[in-house]
Write a structure and sequence with these properties.
Layout lengths: L8 E12 L2 E12 L3 E5 L6 H8 L7 E6 L8 H5 L2 E4 L11 H11 L4 H14 L15 H12 L6 E5 L7 H16 L3 E6 L2 H7 L2 E6 L2 E6 L1 H8 L3 E6 L5 H7 L6 E4 L4 E5 L2 H10 L6 E6 L2 H9 L6
Parallel strand pairs: 3-7, 3-8, 5-6, 6-7
Antiparallel strand pairs: 1-2, 1-4, 8-9, 10-12, 10-13, 11-12
Length: about 325
Amino acid sequence: MSQTTAAPIVIRAEHLVKRYGDFTAVDDLSFEVPAGESFGLLGPNGAGKSTTMRMIGGVSQRTSGTLQIMGLDPQQQGPTVRAHLGVVPQQDNLDEDLRVRDNLLIYGRYFGLSRAHLLPKVERLLDFAQLQDKADARVDDLSGGMKRRLTIARSLVNDPRVLLLDEPTTGLDPQARHVLWDRLFRLKEQGVTLVLTTHYMDEAEQLCDRLIVVDGGRIMAEGSPAQLIRTYSSREVVELRFGADRNAAAAERIHDLGDRVEALPDRVLLYAHDGEAALEAVAARGLQPVTSLVRRSSLEDVFLRLTGRSLVE
């Protein structure tokens, strides 16, 4: 019987801590990322995601704990580690005085790559990013989605083994986000390890093989999106709207009809294995919601249960 060889671990963090004075931004994080995985750090703003990414990238020193990237300590061997990393920061930092093609060429020179080597590579990256027709345009003339694709293309100039993406689609419209997701899927198919931070639930479900939910610098949960939904939520959710002045009272009358009931200002959420059966049980008690919806449970339900709603308002 053949055995599947486990992928080597490219990122290993153990009891990672980062403090700024009396403030602890990252509080005892431990996780591993095998080669070829798409790994996510999911959490609200201020959860410690970007700080963790900066430590992985070797641009921020940890306070305590251990961190290895491809067997190397980024704090001690930063240049060697960064030579194998691609970094897509939260804010695009393209050179707006240069044209699109030149952004890629000059960035490649920082890695000591020859112009002869870079010229065909840049054309391939422009094709990958769907920016061939914008190659001679100024960066300032690009749309937000185009700038994001150019930033990702630039991060691939050095053929990185690991690509770090900090909030890769923030501020993009739905069409631009889906184009970007497609580019990232293609990179994963080529064997690039992806590590991304996001606070978009649908993005995490689409892109991540496995993720950690972080809040207050600590890991609240870890697993694949499907595993987290099974563990922390029900199979289905019934959304009921009775009116702002009636939701709380209605929630009291149906609290035993599912796994859990949550009363919000605008609606009541009834978590149950069978949403249609639960909805019928609500009607059997003489309750008539203004609107009702049965849907599958999502990662957003998990996220809000673990981190609270007030943190993402």
